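Troubleshooting: if your tokenizer reports a length mismatch, compare your output against this known-good record of 313 residues.
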Amino acid sequence: MINPNKRLFPCRIDELPIIGGYIQISLVRDVADFLPYKKYATPYPGDYLAEKLLVEEAIAPVIYINQMKVVTLNILNGCYGLRPLLNSAEIFFNSAGSLLDVLPKDMGQSQVRKQVNRDDTPGVLLALKNLNQNIANNSLVLIDAGMTLIMQEALVTAAATIKTNNDLRNSLMSTRNAATDGNMILFNNFWSVYVSPTRTTGALIFKTSNAAKYKDYVVAQMMARMRHDEAQTQVHGRITDALGNPVNKAKVKLIPVAGGRTRTVYTDAEGNYVVSGMVATAYNQVVTKGSLVKIVGVDVVTRVHLEVNTVLS
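Known-good structure output:
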């Protein structure tokens, strides 16, 4: 009886279908060598593939990823869309000057910018709360300086929109994490019934007869293969301005929509950039240079050199 609460496989959950996929490919290639052992006869190879697909869908459901693409893009557009509002507000803060109950530089706009640049959505919301409170405390003074109530409310509305999307993202992630935990039986079953027996049998078949094939059934070798595949996975491209001129030292960030490590690089003098060692998943690419920003969705595929060119304007 498989313990439903204990992980039986020696890798991360997201690595399980990758390792299982390597072994499934080897099984298809070496099916003739497995035929003497009735366990691996039809329908075993087909059942193995079907189980792998179930595990892949449980770990990263297509619907979930598509929802996260939309909501994270909305969050990024909302956060980076604060920039012109902050610049305009700061002009009014400076105009009001000493009439404010805090120094113009202490109204909170700098902290919001800092959190936006960090892509820290909770930090953005907290900084916006402080900024909007300072604006409310000085509303009449700011109106006299030319910042209308509509202008003041624009930042409140922006904060509410970002919060709505961030709450939705948190809800989606919480639901997905609960579903992943709830699928531990499925993951353990895939390892115990399909992956582990196949790798053990394959290793025994080829241990003394074929060293190259033997390695294809050794977990340590598969982990190394997975790292090698990641190293061969990259996003590259060129950043130009509206006239087609290269943009030097533009910041290029690739942010996984479902969470994970953000990758950041800068363009060279020709506007070129390369991000290697990518995990295959969906990302939001954020390109910035000064006040210019461009955000696009990017789907990264294993061992593919994906070209993503961007025009900053």
